[in-house]
Fold this sequence. Notes:
The chain has 382 residues and is α/β, with parallel strands linked by helices. It has helices at 31-48, 61-72, 86-96, 115-124, 146-151, 175-178, 204-212, 224-231, 244-260, 262-282, 308-318, 344-361, 369-377, and strands at 4-5, 54-58, 78-83, 101-106, 128-134, 136-137, 142-143, 159-163, 182-186, 197-202, 299-303, 320-321, 323-324, 333-337.
Amino acid sequence: MNRYLFTPGPVPVPSAFASMDEREMISHREEVFFELMELIQSKLRSLLKTEGPVIIFPSSGTGALEALVNNFITAEDRVLSVSCGQFGERFREIAGRTEAEIIPLDIEPGRAIEAGSVANAVVKDPGISVVLLTHNETSTGVLNPLKTVIEAIPDDGPLVLVDAVSSLGSTPCFPEDLGIDGFASCSQKGLMTPPGLGLVWLSDRGWDLLESKKERKPCYYFDLKLHRKYLEKERPQNPFTPPVSLLKTLNRSLGFILDNGLENWFASRIRFAASFIEGTSKMGMAPFVRDSEVRSPGVSAVIFDGYAESVRKNLAEMGVVVGGGQGRMKNSILRFAHYADTAWPDLALLLGSVYGSLDLTGYHPDTDFIRVAWKRWNGGEF
């Protein structure tokens, strides 16, 4: 039986990205690797619309988040941690390991971060030196309006560090335009590459602050300045042995996204997500994120009260793998990813499988779901 992966990471890697030459190893100290690094850096700059370097670690997205934290936050810092879900809380937990003072600002899951609440917290507490934000909250399917949020923070205010783990590659993530000082991301979601690569980008302000810090950091493997030093050698490289095969796949994935055209690629993710929500809504299943303006194009959370685990089990038996709810949403929602190069046949398969899974539980959805989804797919008005 075929398996169809719709989890919010890892995601299916198109077979064209992982061709046979992935098995051919190269040294990370030879010319062919340096050329690969140059290609990847050039493509990442195009994807991010920036001129700055992107540090690539052999790690998960969590490792990249830890790199941001350990390079910038100390026990002397006061950190405003803004969370609207499980991964905002994880960013908070990582920062808390530094013994910095954490000031929590929590938003109800399913709702987006509000600019006014963040700006008020910063203005009321001038001692805050760092703000932690999440771009796309994977646990709820919320895409936070970062540009609006960050614009409300004074220009000379605290450093803004962002979890972009599940946004990069699926939605515009242009850090200079957003006003971000540093972000962390990874390979296995919007970049359609197997797990194992963590990415960190810093603004000029971020690099300047890092250079000005006199105290020694406890991290070595995640030392951002060390990685930049090697990246800016006469030929770009990594200070340690990198996962060469993953970098080859990342190079292909970035090329695929850019060749599609960023506007077209991001629009295709919105199209899939919106059509999926139309179809599941017609079945009687409401989206967890009620405000369509802040729904993620990469992952959709749908309420299946009383049916979630049964539907997930039925889907698994059909060979369709989706994500369950997390935290207090564990038994009430399911999460469906739209990161991969998916089109109408994939959507029809997914919706038909959800329909069948619901029918097996004794809940009989409206059979018109596929017409409604098809109409939205073709840009129809309702």
